[in-house]
Amino acid sequence: MSGMDAIAARVAACPTGAEGEPPVVVACRELHRHFGDVRAVDGVDLTVRAGEIAALLGPSGCGKTTLLRLLAGFERPDRGTVALGGEVIASPERMLPPERRRIGMVFQDYALFPHLDVAANVGYALGRRPDRARVDAVLELVGLAGLGDRRPHELSGGQQQRVALARALAPEPELVLLDEPFSNLDAALRDRVRSEVRDILRAAGATALLVTHDQEEALSLADTVAVMCDGRVRQSGSPEEVYGSPASRWVAEFLGEIDVLPGEARSGSATCALGRVPVAGDLEGPVEVLVRPESVTVGMQRDEGEHEALVVERTFYGHDQLLVLELAGGLRVRSRSMGFPAWHPGDRLRVRLSGPVTVLAAGV
Ligand code: ATP
Questions:
Q1: How high is the pLDDT of residue 189?
Q2: Distance of CA 241 to the CA centre of its chain
Q3: Could you give the CA distance from residue 23 to residue 44 in angstroms, rounded to a whole number?
Q4: CATH (residue range 3-102+173-249)
Q5: Pick the CATH number of 257-361 from 3.30.360.10, 3.10.310.10, 2.40.50.140, 3.40.640.10
Q6: pLDDT of 91
Q7: What is the Å distance from ligand 1's center to 349 Cα?
Q8: Is the Cβ–Cβ distance between 174 and 89 less than 8 Å?
Q9: How far is the CA of 34 from the centre of ligand 1 (A)?
Q10: Phi first, then psi: what are they for 260, rounded to 5°?
Q11: Given the DSSP bridges, would you call strands 307-316 and 224-229 parallel, antiparallel or unpaired?
Q12: How large is the average pLDDT for residues 76-97?
């Protein structure tokens, strides 16, 4: 079955779904799990649709693992529900055991059996008499055809990762959970393995939820990102939405570099040290203009910016450079631009906003 056919079959099999959108595979509603005074999961609403790769992104201790364990069936909710394909699988009253949830899991350390070969590791997920043809098909899907008789220690880190993925995909689960799946790989390998994993999940037509604390990983890999903090989902949306239109200063800062310029909003626009910017909604009064460095461009010519800035610091990264600029009045803002031309501390430049900014009521 091709990836598209697999997605179509799964979409058809799923009972819920608004018109025009893939149906909902997983729905967490008002989910709570507390440990004494610690509100590890504190009222989470989360939806993952068929064929989607979703990322649950948040700092250490925000409740990601607990939420994953609630989905997998290793924790019971104190309140709220988890539904899979329209059926409630977890609530304070009802706990479907993990092995009956049709959820595949890829663990951080892969959790492969060292004494079993690759085929047996994958076959383990298919019960006592695994279908060898299915094992071979899924090994082919993950690019490991012909390596079925190797032991895990005879594979590279990236290959072990793919065995873990093959094992999770073999029983054709409704949902695949991936718990920090790239944290064991060194930086050079990580980028490659990430895109391999994304391609494999797509080819399998899988619906996946990836748990990570790595912003770049979530933004580059997922179709939707749920940003979690202190047991709650603070914002969810496409990578572009959460990065480009953060709902709060915390979300903006967690997802990337940001400078905050004080401003004043009136009649649909706000004025700040870098000029006038449009304001969504009916915001009036004191505001914070959140500016990402790549939205600030600089040049030498008058027409390259209506504001003057002094370069006080420069860091060269090869593919780009980061400048710290001082504006009139002493406010500082960063600018990220191509590595050339090279600017230096002491240079006086023209500066302007040339990308999206976010305007929030002061203190949000
Ligand atoms: P990390 O990225 O560091 O793994 P996380 O976002 O996955 O963190 P959790 O492991 O879900 O966070 O933990 C959330 C909070 O719940 C933390 O304060 C943690 O100490 C607490 N916690 C988790 N499990 C338990 C438990 N079994 N008993 C008591 N407290 C717990």
A1: 79
A2: 12
A3: 20
A4: 3.40.50.300
A5: 2.40.50.140
A6: 97
A7: 48
A8: no
A9: 10
A10: -115, 120
A11: unpaired
A12: 96
